[in-house]
């Protein structure tokens, strides 16, 4: 069995504000250590249960956060950017399942450090379904017929995962109080929970179906201001549909995903001063 792990940072226990997830801030090294430890807890059970190949994709910011010198020796790490499939780089139809660790709620929702790729995006849609990073990544997994069997993060990420993926196992390592405060499990208990939930997810793997997007999905991104929509609209094939919402007709989910990356990167060039 071959498993894929996508590891974000905002949904790791104890990481509650930008000082833990921004490499220029004073708590970042602590954040790296706790993130690596949580990822190792998942890998440990995957290995014990007979997974022959475990690929971990570092999925936060510059995607070089996991401490490879402390990574479980039975896993391989995809580190750095630029990656054609960003948070799910390396995922294909050879995997039996995918696990998302350290995930957070989508933009415009309650949750610790909630957002969708960038802070300029208010809402994202595939056809009429509103999604964030979790949903986008699950749809890419579904494109390759790979089920997302577990999502770990705060309670709002768990809620979002269950609303999108019937039967998914969730591991709630902290409960949101506000966007920058949470009731957190101590790392020792978080690691134990992740091990228990990973074992549960593996036992349930055949009962979770891949999340499938429409064959020719329509991507819509609602930005925070018109300047961001103008930048995103520079990508060929897009149109400003209404207000600050930019539309793109994709041939498949992979094209929709990459269009989302390009549009949000362009939009981030907008200046506010």
TrEMBL record:
Protease found in the keyword field: yes
Q: Which residues form the active site?
A: 115
Keywords, sorted A to Z: Aminopeptidase, Hydrolase, Metal-binding, Protease, Zinc
Matches recorded under Pfam families: Peptidase_M55
The residues that the entry says bind Zn(2+) 1 are 8, 10
Is Acyltransferase tagged as a keyword? no
Gene Ontology terms, MF aspect: aminopeptidase activity; metal ion binding
**InterPro entries tied to this protein:** DppA_N, Peptidase_M55, Peptidase_M55_sf
| Positions of Zn(2+) 2 binding | 8, 60, 104, 133
Domain of life from the UniProt record:
Bacteria
- Name of protein: D-aminopeptidase
Organism annotation = Halalkalibacter okhensis
């Amino acid at each position: 069995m071959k498993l894929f792990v996508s590891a974000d940072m905002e949904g790791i226990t104890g990481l509650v504000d930008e000082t833990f997830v921004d490499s220029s801030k004073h708590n970042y090294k602590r954040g790296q250590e706790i993130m690596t430890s949580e990822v190792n807890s998942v890998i440990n059970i995957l290995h014990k249960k007979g997974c022959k190949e475990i690929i971990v994709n570092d999925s936060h910011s510059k995607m070089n956060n996991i401490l490879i010198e402390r990574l479980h020796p039975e896993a391989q790490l995809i580190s750095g950017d630029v990656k054609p499939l960003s948070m799910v780089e390396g995922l294909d139809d050879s995997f039996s399942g995918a696990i998302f660790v350290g995930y957070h709620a989508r933009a415009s929702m309650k949750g610790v450090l909630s957002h969708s790729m960038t802070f300029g995006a208010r809402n994202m849609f595939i056809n009429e379904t509103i999604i964030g990073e979790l949903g986008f990544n699950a749809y890419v997994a579904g494109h390759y017929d790979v089920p997302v069997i577990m999502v770990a993060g705060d309670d709002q990420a768990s809620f979002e995962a269950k609303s999108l993926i019937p039967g998914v196992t969730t591991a709630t390592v902290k409960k949101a109080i506000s966007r920058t405060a949470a009731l957190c499990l101590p790392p020792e208990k978080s690691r134990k929970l992740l091990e228990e939930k990973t074992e549960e997810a593996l036992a349930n793997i055949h009962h979770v179906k891949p999340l499938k997007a429409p064959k020719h999905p329509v991507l819509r991104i609602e930005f925070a201001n018109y300047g961001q929509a103008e930048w995103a609209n520079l990508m060929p094939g897009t149109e400003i549909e209404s207000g600050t919402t930019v539309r793109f007709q994709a041939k498949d989910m992979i094209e929709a995903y990459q269009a989302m990356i390009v549009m949000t990167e362009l939009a981030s060039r907008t200046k506010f001063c």
